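F.,

This is the one I mentioned.
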């Protein structure tokens, strides 16, 4: 408890000190700092889907990142996926959502190759008990339970620039905490990014 209070006091002091220092330099300096900060930010993410006559899947994962240095990025992403199944009277829908924090280190000898590490929390919806609904519906339906998943991904990727400020990337990741509810290894992601 004492260490938390000490950390809070130190953070408060740092915030007050940096606020006073920024106030001394004036509005032009602050605008320049803001522009430099925005130059280091990037947006991106991935989308995916597949649809068959009786089932389908939609995946959306936007991300926000920051270039800490020319060779190191950090960021976070939000995840949402929806899966539905309806075949021969058996149906269910799954809604999964979560978030992840990642770090990327771009290799010094070829700066478009990178090493990627990520922690992801996912609230997964899983069908459990099968229930039959007689007339007039005449359908089978599952009860759904929420399962928290803590995934740790490591791997690498490649970034291909498509303009001065935009890129496409491909990653091959392995989940170090693989469970029966997690996707099978390896996980392949294709995404995009745009600088701000």
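My design for it:
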């Amino acid at each position: 408890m004492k260490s938390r209070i000490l950390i809070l006091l130190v953070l408060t002091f740092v915030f007050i000190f940096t606020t006073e220092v920024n106030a001394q330099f004036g509005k032009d300096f602050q605008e320049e700092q803001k522009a430099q900060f925005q130059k280091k930010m990037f947006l991106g993410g991935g989308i995916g889907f597949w649809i068959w006559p009786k089932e389908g899947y939609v995946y959306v994962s936007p991300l926000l990142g920051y270039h800490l240095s020319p060779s190191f990025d950090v960021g976070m992403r939000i995840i949402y996926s929806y899966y539905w199944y309806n075949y021969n009277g058996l149906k269910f829908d799954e809604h999964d959502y979560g978030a992840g924090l990642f770090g990327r280190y771009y290799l010094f000898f070829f700066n478009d190759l990178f090493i990627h590490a990520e922690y992801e929390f996912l609230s997964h919806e899983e069908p459990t008990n099968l229930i039959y609904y007689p007339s007039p519906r005449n359908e089978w339906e599952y009860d759904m339970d929420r399962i928290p998943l803590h995934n740790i991904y490591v791997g690498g990727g490649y970034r291909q620039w498509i303009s001065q400020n935009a890129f496409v990337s491909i990653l091959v990741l392995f989940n170090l905490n693989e469970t029966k509810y997690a996707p099978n290894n390896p996980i392949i992601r294709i995404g995009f990014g745009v600088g701000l």
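Residues 149 and 180 are 10 Å apart (CA to CA).

Talk soon.
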